[in-house]
Amino acid sequence: MAELITIDDPDDPRLRDYTGLTDVELRRRREPAEGLFIAEGEKVIRRARQAGYAMRSMLLSDKWVDAMRDVIDEDPAPVYAIQPDLAERVTGYHVHRGALASMQRKPLPDAAELLAGARRVAVMESVNDHTNIGAIFRSAAALGMDAVLLSPDCADPLYRRSVKVSMGAVFSVPYARLESWPRGLETVREAGFRLLALTPAERATAIDEAAPHRLDRVALMLGAEGEGLSPQALRAADEWVRIPMAHGVDSLNVGAAAAVAFYAVTSGRPE
């Protein structure tokens, strides 16, 4: 059972995990280096614990103590109770959901190890928007993708915004980082996957005609918002596929495009 500790000093060193949460560059550097990430909101905290992430501490406003009582009773990590205005001074924003937890990261699996047990994989190149990362992971979880691979320069799926947008789905889909790009795609191909590059280019095959759900192993490549996949990534692909558009629309947000493409990749997948 955790000890409930009331704190009234925003500079208390015990709150260090929660300081400056709105400073994106600081948190990008600090969180992976210190092996932590922040889970925001009751549902996300519970999902992180269910996924096996160890809790370092929890930060609660008074009204959330009762709602999280079972977690407090089960987990030995310290629980800091603070007033909402103090939480805002510590974190840099108004904590609407009233509950934050600092969680311990797990070591990422090796890409080849992850691919061994997968058949439907999303591969992201240079996706640096945390909202898009979260949306893609949520769709990957909902639509039955087995794993996600990230290029070395993709944003952190465990950054607070990504976790929040995904509603904790980042904990449900295993992921790994490729060590090099695009050379790392050879690891995917060697594992028996057909690399499909999602692009709005006219020369691309309509995704329903490509029938990816009939293939035994598929890796769907997604590029960053606006720029899309790089020329190097497109050259590395086995086939280009596109989502047919109507009414003169030339493309979709990468999060929306991922959801449509994931459905096409997984629908009717062979057992």
Please explain how this structure is put together.
With 271 residues, the protein is of the alpha/beta class. It folds into two domains: 101 residues, Ribosomal protein L30/S12 (60s Ribosomal Protein L30, Chain: A, 2-Layer Sandwich); 156 residues, SPOUT methyltransferase, trefoil knot domain (Alpha/beta knot, 3-Layer(aba) Sandwich). Helix content is 33%, strand content 19%. The chain is built from eleven helices and twelve strands. The strands form two sheets. The chain has a seven-stranded parallel sheet. The model has no long low-confidence stretch (mean pLDDT 94).
Which ranges are low-confidence, i.e. pLDDT below 50, for 5 or more consecutive residues? none
Q: How far apart, in Å, are the first and last alpha carbons?
A: 44 Å
Strand order of the largest sheet: 8-7-6-11-9-12-10
CATH class of the largest domain, anyone?
Answer: Alpha Beta
| CATH fold type of the largest domain | Alpha/beta knot
Number of helices: 11
Strand content: 15-25%
Percentage of residues in helical conformation = 25-40%
CATH architecture of the largest domain: 3-Layer(aba) Sandwich
Mean pLDDT: 94
Q: CATH-wise, what's the superfamily of the largest domain? A: SPOUT methyltransferase, trefoil knot domain
Report the biggest beta sheet as strand number plus sense, adding barrel if it closes. Answer: 7 strands, parallel
The quaternary organization reads as single chain
Order of H and E elements = EHEHEHEHEHEHEHEHEEHEHEH
Question: What value does the Rg take, in angstroms?
Answer: 20 Å
Structural class: alpha/beta
Give the domain tally.
2
| Shape, principal axes of CA atoms | elongated
